Amino acid sequence: MPTSRRTFAAAAVAALVLPLSACGSGNDDSGSSDASGKVEGDITFQTWNLKANFKPYFDGLIADFEKKYPGTHVKWIDQPAEGYADKISADAAGGTLPDVVNVSPDLVAPLAKAGLALDLDKAAAKYKKEYLAGAWASHQIPGMTGTYAFPWYLNTGPLFYNKSLFKQAGLDAGSPPRTYDELFADALQMAKKSDGKVATLANVPTIEDFGRYGVALMNKEGTAFTFNDSKGVQLLTKYKELYDAKALDPQALTATPESSGKKFLTEAVAMNPGSALDLGNFKKQAPNLYKNIGITDQITSTGHVNMYVMGVMVNSKTKHTPASVAFAHYVTDAEHQMSFAKKVAIFPSTAGSLDDPYFTKQDGTDETRVRIAAAKSLKTAVNYTPVLFSEQMKTALRNEVAKALQGKESPRSALDNAVKQCNTLLAQQG
Amino acid sequence: MALSTVSGKQISGKPKSGAPSPRRVRRQLPTSPWLFAAPGLLITGVFILYPFVSTVINSFTDRRTLIPGRFVGLANFRELLHDDMFWIGLRNSALYVLGVVPALVILPLLLALLVQKNIPGITFFRSAFYTPVVASIVVVGLIWVWLLDERGLINSLLESIGIGRVGFLSDQWLLLLSAMAVTVWKGLGYYMIIYLAALANVPRELHEAASVDGAGAVRRFLTVTVPAVRSTMVLVGALSSVAAFKVFSEVYLMAGPSGGPAGEDTTLVMLVQRTGTGLTGRVGYASALSLVVFVVTVALMLLVLRADRREET
Q1: What fold, for A41-156+307-378?
Q2: ipTM of this complex prediction, to 2 decimal places
Q3: What is the pTM of this model?
Q4: pLDDT in tens, A311-366
Q5: Which CATH architecture has domain A159-305+384-429?
Q6: Rounded-to-integer distance, Cα B149 and Cα A13, Å
Q7: In chain B, what are the domains?
Q8: In this predicted model, what pLDDT tens digit does every residue of A191-245 receive, in sequence order?
Q9: B201: buried, middle or exposed (CB in 10 Å: 19+, 13-18, 0-12)?
Q10: Which residues of B touch A (CB under 8 A)?
């Protein structure tokens, strides 16, 4: 059959354009917020770097759910830790966000604002009482009504310290610093005694440090940042003093959690935050350090340590709302959070779970000691990370803090600039 | 599927020699080449043309990752003129070109001259010089971070000879210089191979004639080798300047995601990545930044080619 040039051109354009049609946002597919129907259908569940270590647990959990609700099928996908936010944003923009997604509060905020997270105060209000009130509230977004994810596991890393370095600096290794004022005093002494060779800290202050120091991070309405108040300036001024005295590692301005972990392993810094999992790492990689390891609570001047909350969100565009809500609840209910907590050092967000003997009775091991201490501090912990504090805001704060530490700006001016930039970014979030 | 558009009547009117009629050739040619080119065109269209057009359109909007943009005219471009981070990025990317390109034009040529001769064991050196090219940039970056660390091998050596520790990874300028050094070290082997191919085409007689006229090694290099590989040097200059202006990995790995102390080592491409990605990414603004990178890159290429043309005339 003869092919005209026009036909060919049309075919070529169609071939070019058709694949692009898949690139459009799928936001038009409207799901239902009614979770009261029959629990059935195929749903997808996405976790955040959990497959490598917990595959049997999740395989069992999914199999049990499918058995409990015949007619459901859960496809489990796991994403690497690195670039998780980018993966979610690509899926969200492409309309391919899974039905049930493992998220943290700062990831939920933009998804909720874009109308992609199901409001659980409407769709799953009956489950609210099963969770700790603070944990349930952790996925509420300032300026919006509703709750946008089930709280999953909580964590609050302990602070490790090197007893040997403390002793060498003439400090009491049995009484590590607990407040920021004690920390500053000990750090300056450590730097002085070691002639600037041993720093106490490897990281510049983050927004959580400002929170634990007692700085008001945002106004009550959640519409503007306020961490440039006199208390914030005071904290940064003290950190500048530490940096000048080499009590804060000189490479702190470019440090990552991995690099500061290595500094602690090589005994270049005396204190570093971590988790119970790190103990095994110390035992294997730095036996000398392991012998001298001390474990204490996070430094705080408010009496409350920082709590990290993980959540499970339901995609508001899901075609199977009842099944998605039921599965998200199933993953995060008291029974399954408790069984997951026994496999890894995390803590349940369900009411009463932290009173379980597993979190209160010592058995003489280091792991249990860390677990019980963390569970105890979690009862009064606060999630100091503002839900609306984006990656761009973290970078803005970090850069301004670095300028203050280098002496390029005064602490006051650096924090004023950081707040200004963060407020601009907040306004742009809409 | 029949591709011919020729009717039986038309064919019957022509000689049966087997040679296609002019009409047949004219009507078949426009279709067949397009079909052959279709896969390539499709890939180019989807992965290059569409993203490019999309970037241009987005640069005039306030689009965010999850929020469709509104047309804002030149607002993004006006904003970047007042954005300190943009000027820092532009400065660092330009410095990278100035620091890296001369080294990558000259050093691989000298290296190629060294390994050009066919002497026993030379293959080992050729392979050794080429190894960094095939190594993963992430692995290379991490190794160099390890070496240049405050307590790393290089600082330990410097301390043992009394120089003291140097803040390669904590000083803004030393960090940028260290990243440049890694780029040069990693690129040497690649450009060396290009020069080796060019040197193989330099007539040996020219060197012999120059030697007879009493020219030494340096003189022969300047008057015979350099003019003979000049066009290759221009090519290397163009390729390395574009790559240097778009540098990301080395600086990202060595200075960290925040771009060094206070972000002072951020390059333009790092800024694009930082601004435009994530759930709250400013896609419109990042697109405007990308357009600037594109324009400067094209300008760099034109500059190098123009300089070459001027020398030729």
Answers
A1: D-Maltodextrin-Binding Protein; domain 2 (3.40.190)
A2: 0.77
A3: 0.81
A4: 999 999 999 999 999 999 999 999 999 999 998 888 999 988 989 999 999 888 87
A5: 3-Layer(aba) Sandwich (3.40)
A6: 54
A7: 76-312 (1.10.3720.10)
A8: 999 998 899 999 999 999 999 999 999 998 888 999 999 999 999 999 999 999 9
A9: exposed
A10: 1-5, 30-31, 34-35, 38, 41-42, 45-46, 50, 62, 64-68, 145, 149-151, 167, 169-170, 175, 255-258, 260-263, 274-275, 277-282
